[in-house]
Amino acid sequence: VAAGVRRIEAVSGKAAETYINNTFDDVTAIRGVFNNPKELLKVIENSVTENKELKKKIESLEAKQVAIYKTELVTQVITVNGSTFIGAVLDVSNADGLKKLANDLKTDAQLVVLAANIGGKASVAIGIADELVAKGFEAPKMIKELITPIIKGGGGGQKNLATAGGQDASNLNKVIEVVKGLL
User: Fold this and answer.
1) Do 114 and 120 form a contact (C-beta atoms < 8 A)?
2) How would DSSP label each residue in 14-34?
3) Which CATH architecture has domain 65-180?
4) Which residue from 132, 93, 82, 92 is spatially nearest to 112, judged by alpha carbons?
5) What is the pLDDT of residues 9-35, one digit of tens each?
6) Residue 108 φ then ψ, to 5°
7) Which of 49, 110, 158, 160 has the most CB atoms in a 10 Å sphere around its CB?
8) Could you state, in order of their start, the residue ranges of all structural domains in the chain?
9) 151-162 CB burial, b ≥16 within 10 A, e <16
């Protein structure tokens, strides 16, 4: 369609009748979901608004949870062959929080590996401080060579921060130990 030209689509005859009947069926089904309110549009608008507010609350709570985990994990730094290490299996609800936490903890430990079972699937984040990157440690290489075979998945990222996801969340502690063994 050329610029400035409007396209109009229409149905007529039996197709128009079918279209209208399907639309009425959809509206009836939606009314049923909302317990047949008198003002359907208002109820839907309120539900959408409430959903947005709840999503914001969830994001806020997840951010607080990550901050609490960071405070706890900083106290669990161990030294392995002269390098500092943090490794933990956490209870988080999304991989983004895991990645952010691994990135934040790189200032407290040279090697960070965090894992979580999110919805029955494995999620792993590795953060590596610049000192170890300079020594040849690379997060995507660790992910591909060591972690993805254990969790049966895939992943990648930058040299200092990478993530992986996989189908098998039963060996998350093994993931921590394998990465720790590199030091």
Assistant:
1) no
2) HHHHHHHHHHHHHHHHHHHHT
3) Roll (3.10)
4) 132
5) 888 999 999 999 999 999 999 999 999
6) -105, -25
7) 110
8) 23-62, 65-180
9) bebebebebbbb
0.70 exceeded by pTM: yes
* Per-position DSSP letters for 131-181, written without gaps between them: HHHHTT--HHHHIIIIIHHHHTEEEEEETTEEEEEES--TTHHHHHHHHHT
Q: What is the distance between the alpha carbons of residues 131 and 176, in angstroms, rounded to a whole number?
A: 20
In Å, how far from its chain's centre is CA 176? 19
Sign of CA pseudo-dihedral 12, 14, 20, 26 = negative
The rounded distance, in Å, linking the Cα atoms of 154 and 151 is: 8
Per-residue CA distances from 70 to 75, 80, 113, 122, 177 (Å):
9, 20, 13, 20, 20
